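re: that chain from earlier
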Amino acid sequence: MSVRSLSPGRNNALLTALGQVIAAILLLGVSVRAPGASDQELDAAYKQGSKLLEPYLVLSDRPARDATTRDARAQILEGIRLLSTVTEAKPENWAAFWLMGKGHQSLRDHVAAEGAFKRSYAINPTHRDVARELMIESICTGHTGAAVAVAEDIARLNPRDAGLAANLGLAYLADGQLTKARSATERALQLDPEDRITRGLLSEVVSVQGGRKPSKYCPP
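^ sequence. v structure.
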């Protein structure tokens, strides 16, 4: 079982639930002056890099364009390169790091994605989507203890968020903490009893508790 297989619907607790956030991130200006680059040049680099990556971003509410072709890979890498010029000039720009992480994620480069999300999280640790993406990529790289730490922190800040409670259950499951995984997932269902995705996660936790071999919890 993968994160993706648990998340077929729009009400997605395990992949990024961006909603209105993605538009804000894609349109966020950089407003920075650095040696050799004007404000206008950096703003253009941010907007062009975002535009190149946007069709390939793995989101919960629409399919991503195929990122496996040569042209797609070139476009994604160019988008990441443009955004890296922004982060070099303004290393506190969490949104640019987040988009770079999403670009690496679309290429299934989980190590690079985790690294970019770590930078974004270090700047903006209270943002739900930043924490969620870092948690997922830490699971993908096998850093499940780190995934748990991030999921615990963001869930603690948002105790009524059913999706973040389910994310915490997934992180515990990936880390082999089955009792905590069940408790967190059951809490998520208390917060949102109609969430079929979380019910699927609870079924997975119960099956693993019963002796079934854990699945892979990284999106394919």
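Residues 1-19, 29-34 have pLDDT under 50 and may be disordered.
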